[in-house]
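Re: the pair you flagged

First of the two:
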Amino acid sequence: MSTNVTWKGRWTFILAATGSAVGLGNIWKFPYITGEYGGGAFVLVYLACILLIGIPVMIAEIMVGRAGRSDPVHSMSKMGKAAGRSANWGAVGAIGILAGLMIMMFYSVVAGWALDYVAQSISGNYHQATTATIEQNFSLLLSDPSEQLIWHSMFCLITASIVAGGVTNGIGKSVDILMPILFGCLLLLLGYSWLNGDFSAGLHFMFDTDFSKLNSEAIIVAMGHAFFTLSLGMGAIMAYGAYFPGKTSIGKTVLTIAILDTVIALVAGMAMFPLVFANGLTPSQGPGLMFVTLPIAFSTMNGGQFFGTIFFALVSIAALSSSISLIEPGVAWLEKYGVKRPLSTFSLTGVAWLGGIACIYYGEVFDALDYITANIMLPLGGLLIAVFVGRILSRSTVAQEVGMGTGALFKSWWFVLRYLAPIGIILIFLNSLKLI
């Protein structure tokens, strides 16, 4: 049942896991909520939430994957049985695999919009266009199912082609190339923003420390984003953990991933918001910022066509690095039943592709998939993983597998995983269901 495949090195795993974590939400959502909820004050709370929820659960997920050396279902089942408990804990892995597939259904549609805007940028479609025309561009795309279907299909095909190539030659090689390109694009945009944008206004928006905005809602939002940004609760990190090199430190690796994820989100904000403010635009939430506000900003600036292309390429790469991890857990699971990787990859991506078509033609399907995965399946998966590692597995087994020793560092992590992280996830759960 176990796999002998491993990442070719620690940094390939770090890039793969960071790629899974860095998605569309990092590019627009984190910078926006940072500015909205008190800037530097929010960043401090967010970092605390990363330390108390994100990192502890991520270490637990990777540990289970590495110990089980299998897909999320078989890893959870195997460790449950080894601990003298039920093999039915594998169902937690199954929830994660299903959640990843459901997320891919609507995620690939939004990623398709980004690909469309790469083409629009290259062709100069919105360059020097009026605000009304640029707003209409996005509305026309949303009302044109056939156009969305083309880009959605292309994105699914690219994702499947990478995953079908295998862990080392497909996913490993792609993240070794894609993630440095993503970092390079970000730095280019940051430089462009420094020269052409209102950098001071961007800095004030994101980093002015206003503790008066730190209400209970801001803290719950920080908790939620800390949990979701690291791709927790959907089996992706556990599946990647199965290929984790045996003697590498999980704790140090997870800390590196969390730092990279946060830095990328903050740099993305500093690359975007100065351009927004320089044009007298309002930083709006959601797709409106990426597909309307920023094209308006790029349309009038020197080099806007080139840097608009770079920006939407960056968004597409971030989406692709995440989509790979949405498909991989299910592929790893099917491989255990003798299904060849190319067949399992294209079959699962085909299911996601069909779901994406439903999202394109029926907006309520898009909204339902988004709601069910974000508000129910991922928090539930994360909570059950924390309970499984913190309360079902024996302390000695966990200490041996996680490789932190048994000193103060392990005791701190163990306490946080058993008590603080579950409470935080329950609060996220209740808030997302509008119960608090």
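Second of the two:
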Amino acid sequence: MIQTRTEHDFLGSLEIPADVYWGIHTQRAINNFPMSGQKVNQRLIRALAMVKKASCLANAENGYLVPDKAKALAAACEEIIAGKLADQFPVDALQGGAGTSTNMNLNEVLANRAIELLGGNIGDYTIVHPLEDVNLHQSTNDVYPTAIKVAGTLALRELAQVIAPLQGAFQEKEKAFGEIVKLGRTEWQEAVPITLGAEFSAFAEAFSRDRWRTFKCEERLRVVNLGGTAVGTGLTAPRNYIFAVIEKLRDVTGLGLSRGDNIMGETANADAYVEVSGILKAHAVNLIKIACDLRLMNLLGEIHLPQLQAGSSIMPGKVNPVLAEAAIQTGMKVIANDGIITDCAARGTLQINEFLPLLAQALLESLDLLINIDTLWIKYIKDIVADQKICGQYFDHSPMIITALLPAIGYERATQLITEFSASSEKNMRLFLEQKVGKEIVDKYLSPYQLTALGYKDNG
């Protein structure tokens, strides 16, 4: 038989498993929101523990918490920040109440763990109280959005750090493939000649922009409303606490956070998350586009993507570009999450946004997905192999390579030569051109350097 303890609130009483750290408010949320099966993102839990620690330290410094209680509470915060007690946060990510259930869950777990550290029994809130001590001078409406911004900022830094080596992997291929001439393609048709290295340089440049945007957009999350309590006015919080708590949060997180000039505005509006999500969407778009290009180049045989697993239960030997497909699906999910974040931000009402739980889940999920796929892609890109022979075959047999010779022979002469080539039995355009205009001219204008130089040098 499961041992239980009884806890009370103004709605009545509930039986709670005796060995858990959560209390009646968490238990009500467990009962009320058995919806998605997804728990609150652990990044948000850890960030909220950072906010709680900052509040504890600010309250202790100003004499609102006695030292032994503050020490135990800070130690409990540190445990959660370190990833301990993760199983004590069972509330569904999709919850009503603007994050109150998650805030209550933290308050109760921290209180009970602090009680235990002080030698008391779980549930004896005369020692440490979830609301009167842990939540002192706070509201869900200031600590919860602040925690989202802390979690988001830390994740953005992590994402920027994995985009950098991904960009580097493409730059390595840019150098390795620099001498391989191939056909460019536009609108699914053969186009002007290029090099495979130049093609990969375009991929690297896209991720360079993503890296910079991701690094810069954390600035949008550094302005927080901590100390504003319910609606941003700081009602029920002493002024010395309000000024101290942001300083403590900077110390705890190591982030350059600042309190908003208009805390009511920071509390009521969630547009900063939309802006950041837009940056994540841009990265997702680049992932999808480049993954699609890599799949097509793999199909054409110009490159060989790493073979990771059997691709069919019926076709022996078939291998699919699974990690490229995973990147496409990741990008699609991030784009869908951007729509969710946008809608959540738009639907906030008057002084707060009651849809922050869904917004937080979508934002942090997008960050987790992008961090994970980028990490997987670093080795994936490094292991791509070029097929210079196939690239050369497409190149040599395409009439479009004549475009590179226009500075030497002109448009009319080029058109005439294409007509002649089409009517001849020759299938190799390069050999045909060598016969018609000379090997020296062909080699010069179809060299990797000439194909990728910015324009041509006019000696006239």
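Strands lie at 4-9, 12-17, 181-186, 189-195, 223-224, 258-259, 303-304, 385-386.

-B.
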